[in-house]
Amino acid sequence: QVQLVESGGGLVQPGGSLRLSCAASGSIFSIYTMGWYRQAPGKQRELVAHIISSGSTNYADSVKGRFTISRDNAKNMVYLQMNSLKPEDTAVYYCNADVRTGWATANFWGQGTQVTVSS
Length: 119
Hints:
Distance between the termini: 40 Å
Radius of gyration: 14 Å
Number of strands: 11
């Protein structure tokens, strides 16, 4: 089994920054895509950014130029640097990964970390 554990959420004022981290552990042979999603109250979960094993990235239009996703393949970790935060960025942020275990490739989710942007 594979576990994804997020950290780094919290309360920040508008214009501030936060860095989210996600650590993958367990029966991992390799990790393909790693990404961050978010879900605000009353809204559907949406993609924030994802990064494939080669380092190629993709961002939601709403965060382009403000957020940066990166990964450390040796440590099985993915990060999300969030700058110029806005109140509309308030949500639970979830880590997601496509992981090849010893037998198959499966998709896994973390438990989520709350990000609140408010003055």
